[in-house]
Design a protein that fits this description.
Mean pLDDT: 88
Number of domains: 2
Largest sheet: 3 strands, antiparallel
Order of helices and strands: HHEEEHHHHHHHH
Strand content: under 5%
């Protein structure tokens, strides 16, 4: 387990593009929050107490350093699920996956991306279906690249981000339908997590 100092120092190895995405996350997530309806409990910079402890942080959550949170973001929500592979292929698609992953867990946007790609291949006439396994690997990246070659970079980007947003919205509605306490967050989710990636960046 890495020490707090090692975690904070790891931020120096993060790419400029990833740092920009993380900076945007900090703006959305804000500082310290401990909402009674949030099963994640106390959160600072979008990092829950459970995640912070898993990474060896032993201090008070109110004092969680931003550099520590930055390193956790990169390890758990960018490199871990394979979203770093997307940054060089389509920064807006990577941003959509990373932002959604911080809010819902990275397996969800991985599957949303894979589902979108499979639904856009015209019954496998354009490229083969990929496994919906919740992890972005080389096959997922190749499928996206095939879509981009066929449709153009901008169109592929817009199609995929829109379909990922649609699935994310359905996921939030399912949460609120299953447990009314999640309605406490629906306004924020709808305002800040759906349609928050500028399609003009495609």
């Amino acid at each position: 387990m890495a020490s707090n100092k090692q975690k904070a120092g790891a931020a120096g190895a993060i790419s400029v593009a990833a740092l920009a995405i993380i900076a945007a996350l900090f703006n959305v997530e804000g500082g310290y929050v401990d909402h009674p309806s949030d099963p994640g409990g106390a959160t600072k910079h979008g990092i829950t107490e459970k995640v912070a402890r898993m990474h060896g942080y032993e201090g008070a959550m109110r004092a969680l350093p931003k550099g520590f949170a930055q390193a956790v973001y990169y390890q758990d929500y960018i490199a871990g699920p394979g979203f770093d592979r997307l940054i060089g292929v389509s920064e807006p698609v990577a941003r959509e996956a990373i932002d959604s992953g911080v809010n819902t867990g990275p397996a969800h946007p991985s599957r949303w991306l894979q589902t979108a790609l499979n639904s856009l291949n015209r019954r496998q006439r354009d490229y083969a279906d990929i496994a919906i396994d919740g992890r972005v690997g080389p096959a997922t990246v190749r499928a996206y690249q095939s879509l981009a070659r066929l449709r153009g970079d901008a169109t592929a980007c817009r199609l995929v981000v829109r379909l990922m947003d649609a699935q994310q919205g359905a996921y939030y509605l399912s949460l609120a339908h299953g447990n009314s306490r999640f309605e406490d967050f629906m306004v924020g989710w709808a305002a800040n997590r759906i349609g928050n990636v500028d399609l003009g960046r495609c």
